[in-house]
Design a protein that fits this description.
Number of domains: 1
Helix content: 40-55%
Structural class: alpha/beta
Radius of gyration: 18 Å
Strand content: 5-15%
Order of helices and strands: HEHHEHHEHEHEHEHHHHH
Number of helices: 13
Strand order of the largest sheet: 2-1-6-5-3-4
Length: 266
């Protein structure tokens, strides 16, 4: 688990290399980990990512219980803002793929006002349905033609992470990141919880109040299931850092990655 400054420095290093490889950053909380526990394809996608950062407080608590005392929360919107600040100085560019045309327009206007040195290579709102292989290929070609430094996806978990996983071999973008509702947070169309709410680990409650139809299941069904399984694993491993099942997700591989060195495979 890395800090905000470390994550942005890692992204900048990937952009500087521009070696033809597309490196994937996964930004998720317990929801993504639980979905990966249930879905083998998503499990493979998350474990193949080059960098993973915790969007919620639950993975941070688990990491600390596993011995990673310095683990800290890094929501997608905060990673975006930190990158845009660096891009403002360096002239980096972004492509935004996902969400609605209205959100993308508001996002572009806000970024042009706040970060004039950051370049918007393009925006695209794909249809809100399953894409055909041909459509997906055309979208990848459109993104490659725009030559962005970073591709941001606002399709929601797990759709955005699976999209990157399927297409990273043909993406000519140094970094691809799925940030869920991050587009709406930066655009100002959905309000973020105050900082103190996030620091107390209660942003899930704030999101539930704002979007109850979208969030009720993950809060009241998936959340308790996740806590139960983590508790069982902690009891079983006595905090030795092993994965909580053979289908566990990338957050539990931190010590193995530290042994290999670096922040990921990139």
């Amino acid at each position: 688990m890395v800090s905000k400054s470390e994550a942005v420095a890692w992204m900048e290093d990937c952009i500087g290399r521009r070696d033809g490889a597309c490196r994937q950053i996964v930004v998720t909380g317990f929801h993504g980990l639980w979905r990966a526990f249930e879905d083998p394809e998503l499990h493979r996608a998350l474990n193949s990512a080059d960098l993973w950062v915790p969007d919620g407080i639950a993975p941070v608590w688990v990491a600390r219980l596993k011995g990673f005392r310095g683990a800290q929360r890094l929501p997608g919107a905060e990673l975006m803002e930190a990158f845009f600040a660096r891009a403002d100085q360096k002239g980096f560019s972004s492509f935004f793929y996902g969400d609605s045309v209205e959100t993308l327009d508001a996002l572009a206007q806000r970024l042009e006002s706040r970060h004039p040195g950051h370049r918007i290579a393009g925006t695209f709102s794909p249809p809100f349905r399953e894409l055909s292989e041909d459509e997906e290929r055309q979208h990848v070609e459109m993104i490659n033609a725009a030559r962005p430094d970073v591709l941001w996806l606002g399709l929601g978990m797990p759709k955005q992470d699976l999209w990157i996983y399927r297409n990273r071999h043909r993406l000519h973008v140094p970094v691809a990141v799925g940030v869920g509702a991050g587009f709406r947070f930066i655009a100002g169309t959905v309000g973020r919880a105050p900082g103190w709410v996030g620091r107390m680990g209660l942003e899930w409650l704030w999101r539930l109040a704002q979007e109850p139809r979208k969030c009720w299941r993950r809060c009241f069904v998936e959340g308790p299931q996740f806590v139960w399984h983590v508790g069982l694993e902690l009891a079983k491993t006595n905090g030795d850092g092993r994965r909580f099942t053979d289908r566990g997700a990338a957050v539990y591989d931190g010590r193995d990655r530290e042994r290999r060195g670096g922040l990921g495979r990139g």
